[in-house]
Write a structure and sequence with these properties.
InterPro entries: TfoX_N. The protein has 111 residues and is an alpha+beta fold. The protein is built from three helices and six strands; from the N terminus they run H-E-E-E-E-H-E-E-H. The protein has helices spanning 3-15, 55-62, 91-109, and strands at 23-28, 31-36, 39-45, 48-52, 67-71, 76-83. It starts with a helix and ends with a helix.
Length: 111
Amino acid sequence: MDETSRNIVQRIRVSLNPWSDHITEKKMFGGSCFLYKGKMCVGETKQRLMVRVLSEHMEKVLKMQHVTPMDFTGKPIKEFIFVSEKGFDTEEKLQYWTEYGIAHAKSKTES
């Protein structure tokens, strides 16, 4: 992991502080992922943010700048997006995406 990726991962850790009692970190998708109560919510790979997004928000989110479907194999992965660095270059933007990921994870743990 390069220094830029390490910095992104550290920023994610800080953004997850409000939920820290329920967060675990795991190596997945070639990077570092964070799980809320065992459900992946947000992570970093190749200096991009990975975020789980509720399906009802995907259409809106995919129209946003710096956002693309998460695609490792030529086929988008359901309810996952990539956000390029400019899309989370402030702590406010990172927190915005973190909260999307937490909302997705909560929907899977509280159903």
